[in-house]
Design the sequence.
């Protein structure tokens, strides 16, 4: 009953500057990805209300080999989450757990190995950035709903604790964020180039 989110939100996508020109100026649609390691399943990814995190992500990718990001930039989007698989909702977490058990049973019958979340090879990171298990579990949930003729989710939303602690014994980490995966392209109502704040403006 409460899975349909109300109102519009602002979200941000880290990418190459050329992508912004194509999407904003030439109205090119977003590319929806189906990587088996994506954290929230298949779709188009955004950082919830965090252009700075989107830019940091794009900057990090630009330093890697064989990257398509030459000039890191941020694309803003106005999004309606629609019917959302919100993983901040306790009820949805229970459904995801059931999806895991179903996937586990399916894998056992087929005699394949269950996928795992992994730390990237040759990386100083300790976080499980390659989320093959989580992606498979979420995609299983989508398939299960389709099989049961239940309404499809337009989007998926999750919170992640990532990076080293902000300070000793902290409950916060340097890269904590809320991530959004859009599955239904009609949820993206418009795109824009984020503006810088006018530091000269005074309300006094």
Sequence:
């Amino acid at each position: 009953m409460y899975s349909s989110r109300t109102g519009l939100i602002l979200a941000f996508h880290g990418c190459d500057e050329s992508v912004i020109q194509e999407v904003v100026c030439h109205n090119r649609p977003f590319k929806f990805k189906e990587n088996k390691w994506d954290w929230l399943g298949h779709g188009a990814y955004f950082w919830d209300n965090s252009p700075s995190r989107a830019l940091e992500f794009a900057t990090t990718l630009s330093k890697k080999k064989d990257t398509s990001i030459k000039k890191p930039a941020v694309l803003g989007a106005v999004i309606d989450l629609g019917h959302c698989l919100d993983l901040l909702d306790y009820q949805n977490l229970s459904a995801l757990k059931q999806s895991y058990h179903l996937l586990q049973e399916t894998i056992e019958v087929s005699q394949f190995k269950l996928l795992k979340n992994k730390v990237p090879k040759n990386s100083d990171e300790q976080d499980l950035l390659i989320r093959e298990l989580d992606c498979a579990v979420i995609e299983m949930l989508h398939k299960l709903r389709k099989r049961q003729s239940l309404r499809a989710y337009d989007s998926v939303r999750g919170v992640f604790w990532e990076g080293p602690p902000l300070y000793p014994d902290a409950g916060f980490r340097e890269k904590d964020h809320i991530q959004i995966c859009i599955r239904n392209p009609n949820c993206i109502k418009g795109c824009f180039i984020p503006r810088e704040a006018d530091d000269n403006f005074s309300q006094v």
About this structure: The first strand starts at residue 9 and ends at 16. The beta strands are 9-16, 44-48, 72-79, 84-86, 117-118, 130-131, 155-160, 177-182, 188-192. The CA atoms of residues 80 and 133 lie 27 Å apart. Residues 9-192 form one domain.
